[in-house]
Amino acid sequence: MKPVKNIEEFVKLEKPHVKTGGAMDERTLNDSFAVMDETIRAGKPNAAGIILRSRAAKLAAAAVILVGFGLLMVYRNPPMPQQPPQTEIVAKSPAEMLTAMSLNMAWRRGGIEAVDEQSSKAFKMLESKPAKASIQELLLELNGV
Amino acid sequence: MIDEKLLIWKFNRGSKDAFQMLYEKYKDDLLGLAITLLRDRSLAEDVVHDVFVSFAGTTGSFHLSGTLKGYLSTCVANAARDRNRLRSHRDVELEAAEAMGCDSGDPVEHAIDSEQSGRLTQLLGRVAYEQREVIVLHLHQEMRFKEIAEALGISINTAQSRYRYGLEKLRSIMNSMVTK
If you average pLDDT over residues B120-141, what whole number do you get? Predict the structure, then answer.
C-alpha cells in the first residue's frame, strides 16, 4: 500500500457500497407498514385534536365557550322584569304648588307659561283636571285679585 | 429536494408508497454507515431496520428541519452507538470480514460487499469509536460539523478535534502498514 497523502480523499473513495438484502427489505417494510397502520389507527384526529391543531378552530371554540357561558348565566339569573315607572317624587304637594307664594315664584321664574305648567302638574298629581277653570279664574280665586 | 418534500408530505398522510420510496432511496447508504460504525453487518441491518420502523411511527407528525438524509444518518449513528455500548467487549477488529455475513440473500453479493467495504472498515476499526463516528458522518454522510455536534450532543470544537485526531490516527495506522 502506498502512503496516503490526502487521508480525507481516501476515506471518501473507500466509502462502502453495500446493498441491503431482499429479506431485510421485506422485514423492514413489513414492520414499518404495520407500525404506520397502528400509528394512523391510534392517531385518528378527533374533535379535540382538530381544535388543538388549528388556530382558527381554537378561536371559534373559545367564542362558543364564551357564548355558552353567557347563555348559562342569563338562564340562571334572568334579568329583573321591568319595573313600572315610579311615580315621580316631588318635593312639593299639589296643595303647596298651588299656593299663592308658589305660583308667584313660578310667575317670576317663567311667566305665565311656568304658572300654567306648575298648575298642570299639580292637577295631574291630583288626577283631577278642572274642566273649565282657567288660570285667571284660579288666580282670582286664590289671590283675590 | 422538492420530490423528497413531496414524499415526506405524502408519508405524513399515511402513504406507504411514499415511505417505500424513501426507504429505497436511503437504505443502502444507511446500511453502509451502520456497517462502518459497527463493523458487523447483522447488527448494522438491525440498526437500519429499527431506524426505519421508528421513522414509520412518526407518520402524521413528522417535521423535518434539515435534510432527511442528515436526520436518518443521525438516527443510525445514535442507534449504532447504543448497540456498540450494549455489545459485549469482544474483539471484532480482525473479525470484521467474517462478521459481514448476514441473515439474508445471496452469499456472492455479500462477499462483494465485504470486499468493497472491508478495507476502510478494518482501518477505521482501529480508530476510537467517537472519532470514527465523526469521520464517517462528515466524509460519507456529508454532514457539517455543526450538524454532527447537534446530533451527538457535543460542541463543534469537540466534533472537529475528534475528526482531526481520528484522521491522524488513521494516517499513522496506514503509514505503519506501508513501512511493514
Answer: 87
Instruction: Give the residue on B whose Cα is nearest the Cα of A45.
Output: B60
Q: pLDDT per residue over B21-74, tens digit each?
A: 999 999 999 999 898 888 888 889 999 999 999 999 998 888 888 889 889 999
Domain ranges within chain A, ordered by starting residue: 20-76, 94-143
Whether residue B89 lies inside any domain: the answer is yes
Chain B contact present for A50, CB below 8 A:
no
Which CATH number characterizes residue B80's domain?
Answer: 1.10.1740.10
In chain A, the percentage of residues whose pLDDT exceeds 70 is 73
Facing A43 at nearest CB: one of B27, B60, B178: B60
CB contact under 8 A, A29 and B20: yes
pTM over 0.95: no
Q: What is the pLDDT of residues A80-108, one digit of tens each?
A: 666 655 544 445 777 787 888 888 888 88
When divided into structural domains, chain B yields a total of 1
In this structure, is residue B16 part of a structural domain? yes
In a domain, B160, yes or no: no
Nearest Cα to Cα of residue B133 among B97, B175, B63, B85: B85
Residue B174 maps to a domain: no
pLDDT of residue B25: 92
Nearest by CB: A21 against B58, B102, B178: B102
Q: What are phi and psi of A60, to 5 degrees?
A: -60, -40
SS (H, E, C) chain A: CCCCCCHHHHHHHCCCCCCCCHHHHHHHHHHHHHHHHHHHHHCCCCHHHHHHHCHHHHHHHHHHHHHHHHHHHHHHCCCCCCCCCCCCCCCCCHHHHCCHHHHHHHHHHHHHHHHHHHHHHHHHHCCCCCCCCCHHHHHHHHHCC
